[in-house]
Amino acid sequence: MPIVMTALLSFAGTNIDDILILTLLFSRAETAADKWRIILGQYLAVLTLTFFSLFFGYSISFVPHAYIGLFGLVPILLGLGAVRQLRNKGRDQSQQTDKAQREPGRLRQFLEKIFPADILYVYFLTLANGADNVSVYIPLFTNLGAGEIITIIVIFVVLIGVWCFLGMKIGQYPLIKVFLEKYKDMLIPLVFIGLGLYILLKSGTFGLLLAG
């Protein structure tokens, strides 16, 4: 049960803002095919971030867990950074939008031969918004066994579908959309800081910090 809650919290904390993006994308979808392309792009992006984090986490698995647990400071810093942004909201919004929509260059030209452009749009948009995913997933995976990792990946696969479903439906319920737009800036730091503290506790890093 704890691993299920960990998966739910880590996914929700790193993808809560994707619901708003998906809501806007689905609101522009005119056909069922358009919706399936959005879903496929979202799956490809989140799973790319997940497996990249898993590979990188495995490559440093020889490092003692207490030291790896220091990565738990990253989501805490992300949470504190989000708190800081609450005090300076709106300053960098235009810069972030430009960065998310920046042309990926040759990589995109190559991938467009394999996937339709609208799938790539969702894919790169989600990747551009996924730095926090990697920062949270790497320390999470390095502290888990194979069975726990498989459980988390299965839960993530299910939750991506749930996220896409919510993105399609939220536009039909304006009050929910308004609630997320209003409170997501407060929910994100709470989830990140809580997850970071959990990683520090699980890996025994608190003892390392106190001993130092």
TrEMBL record:
Coiled coil: none annotated. It holds the Pfam family Cad. Keywords: Membrane, Transmembrane, Transmembrane helix. The chain crosses the membrane at residues 6-26, 38-60, 66-83, 149-166, 187-211. The keyword Flavoprotein does not apply. This is Cadmium resistance transporter (Or sequestration) family protein. The keyword Calcium does not apply.
